[in-house]
Amino acid sequence: MSVVINRPAEFVVHSGLESPAPSVLTTQGVDAQVVIPGQVHASLWWRTVPLCSSERLGVIGHFRAAATADATAVAAALDAACRTLQEAGCTLAIGPLDGNTWRSYRFLTWRGTEPRFAFEPDQPDTWPAWWQQAGFSAHEQYWSALVTKLDGHDARLDAAGARLTRAGVTIREIDLASFDEELPRIYAVSEIAFRDNVLYTPLPQAEFLAMYKQVRPLLRPGLSFIAERADAPVGFVFALPDLEQTKRGTAVDTVVIKTLAVLPGRELAGLGKLLLERCQHAAHAAGFRRAVHALMHDGNASRNLGDDAVEIRRYTLFARHLV
Questions:
Q1: How many other CB atoms are there within 10 angstroms of residue 29's CB atom?
Q2: pLDDT attached to residue 299
Q3: How far is CA 89 from the centre of its chain?
Q4: pLDDT by residue (tens digit) across 13-50?
Q5: What is the pLDDT of residues 225-245, one digit of tens each?
Q6: Which residue of 117, 131, 273, 303 shows the fewest CB atoms closer than 10 Å?
Q7: Largest CA distance in the chain
Q8: CA separation for the pair 65, 50 (Å, rounded)
Q9: What domains lie within the chain, and their CATH numbers?
Q10: Which residues of the chain have pLDDT under 50?
Q11: Residue 267's pLDDT is what?
């Protein structure tokens, strides 16, 4: 079984694998391409990767396996990927992760009974099993939850709301008519609020803006909110209708709460839950009956969503030691 390692000048598109175009690989800073022609594709990063205090990380992403592939082919490709990362000085390989956590990453590893929601990662169930057979084990765990009582109110937030109002914090809808002007304000919060997240990597503003502009046609007014103090952004919640329901031919009664972020600091305590409640109340008033809290890390404070939150999905980021 022939495994090919391509460097940037040799990147090619491999038919049948939905592998990214060479221009995408170059733009995203891919260091090498691992391919079993017609069977398996993966991209490798080792120069621009998330920092880890105890390991030198190597990243495996853009993973694709053809319907005709099997565990043997995937193991051969992943073994070659790990050897290449080890030769580059890496001590731990992680994946699937398309370079950084701003892009696509994680395998869906527990499906539950709810159907797929918008922007949720998905893949054949054989893929994570094949990674485990190739020596990878769970490194980080994530989950999504469903809330069905959108008009509920947590009385404990009354005091927090009053305190934040006295401190000059206000909450307003994100103005979709001026979305290009709103995005830099959202970026200013994201760039700081996510710094302590697992595997955080800084993202240039231009790439952030390009990423979110692609979502603009899917947004609905009145579902996303931004918090400000003295005209400076301090938090936001970003939600959109679950358009996967439209694809299934069912009524859209669910919103996906995609991102919730608040600047650090005790003076903003409670703001995240206030934003979340405002978002859910607005969704309820607009006729939605359910909200998905999407893709949260097990260690995040968002773990505490309330008694009505029911876990509906699990996801896993895998790792394999190289030394």
A1: 14
A2: 76
A3: 27
A4: 877 788 899 999 999 999 999 999 999 999 999 999 99
A5: 999 999 999 999 999 999 999
A6: 303
A7: 67
A8: 25
A9: 4-140 (3.40.630), 149-288 (3.40.630.30)
A10: none
A11: 94
CA 110 – CA 125 distance, rounded (Å): 9
Please tell me the total number of residues recorded for the chain in this structure. Answer: 323
For strands 92-95 and 32-36, give the pairing.
unpaired
The pLDDT, as a whole number, for residue 6 is: 93
Backbone angles phi, psi at 51, to 5 degrees: -85, 150
Q: Are 101 and 208 in contact (CB under 8 A)?
A: no
Contact 62, 42 (CB under 8 A): yes
Secondary structure in 3-state letters for the chain: CCCEEECHHHCCCCCCCCCCCHHHHHHCCCCEEEEECCCEEEEEECCCCCCCCCCCEEEEEEEEECCCCCHHHHHHHHHHHHHHHHHCCCCEEEECECCCCCCCECEEEECCCCCCCCCCCCCCCHHHHHHHHCCCEEEEEEEEEEECCCCCCCCCHHHHHHHHHHCCEEEEECCHHHHHHHHHHHHHHHHHHCCCCCCCCCCCHHHHHHHHHCCHHHCCCCCCEEEEECCEEEEEEEEEECCHHHHCCCCCCEEEEEEEEECCCHHHCCHHHHHHHHHHHHHHHCCCCEEEEEEEECCCHHHCCCCCCEEEEEEEEEEEECC
Give the pLDDT confidence score for residue 301 in this predicted structure. Answer: 53
